[in-house]
Amino acid sequence: MTSARTWLERIRGLPLPDSVRVMNVCGGHERSITMAGLRGALPPQVELIPGPGCPVCVCPEEDIYAAIQLARRDDVTVAAFGDMLRVPCNAPKAEPRSLEQAKAAGGDVRPVSSPEEVLAIAKAHPDREVVFFAAGFETTTAPVAGLIANGLREGLPPNLSVLLSGRLTWPAVALLLDSDTPGFDALVAPGHVSTVMGPEEWEFVPKKHGIPAAVAGFNPESLLAALYSVLRQVIENRPFLDNCYQAVAQPGGNPTARAILNDVMDVTDANWRGIGVIPGSGFTLQEKLGDLDARVRFSIEPEEDRKRAGEMPPGCDCARVVLGKIYPNQCILYGKACTPRKPIGPCMVSDEGACRIWWASGVREQAGADLVRE
Q1: pLDDT at position 373 over 70
Q2: How many domains are contained in the chain?
Q3: Alpha carbons 303 and 306: distance in angstroms, whole number
Q4: Are strands 265-272 and 276-285 parallel, antiparallel or unpaired?
Q5: What is the domain extent for residue 344?
Q6: Does residue 328 lie in a domain region?
């Protein structure tokens, strides 16, 4: 394997233009880039931009609010992936504003790391309704689909239901590229999403938009290989999709996972918190699975009259961070009102949120005006 040092030397030897903006579309990529100090190691002409790679950050505010209301019921247990518990919603001051606060107020809220844990909870407590609040991108939604598909064959506990907030990654990138100001010149595509859905899912980037793209893994060697590829593509004006994660991301992705997703879920237009509805970007349970759908079982309807329903918290710039319009430390709340101890926005909560990642790497000060991207 070519070493990270060798890839850096190759990148530094390229005849780079004055500026090349490269977006990465994965929270894991952003964590690896930041923790490895790659921004400081690359030539100054290369600008690495964190993009829409945090599913927790874009999970609809109204879904979080619905999960909190369910957790406040005496007969309901809500299970959710751990980083969802601290994400705030815009609830009235007298009410819990996160699942963590609902738990502190007496609600039965369980952090889990896998769908199998939720199944075990439902089996262990047949006298309670157990709701799995499942938010995530393709890599997280596929195991949820697997839980449901296995349950259809072997039987699921009748007290189990799913509040699904699954999202597809590529439509958010398509939204940016279809805009007048996409904000980047090349793309590093997510490795794990490509493992499930197939690298070719990203071919629209070079073919339709003429923008270089490369799928990358999560170690510095793979990330730098992908960066070298897209930078050469920019220099040579020869955009294509390069797979720099071939050991894991195979053509066609994971056929079993894709088949299971197609068997139990449909793709629909979906709301992204602070961004709005993106066409064809959401997973929803198929109509035949209405008994498993928590929205159906509990007659959940959006509370549109609630103050700031569906929006980010006041002053929070997470939506522009997610879209790569500003850097995390350009939000006016970063490091002041919003810190990991007292997060205001979801980007400071999740381990895949750019704000949390930058804070963990030691970036504690807000950016100066000369660093503002917009």
Answers
A1: no
A2: 1
A3: 6
A4: antiparallel
A5: 318-360
A6: yes
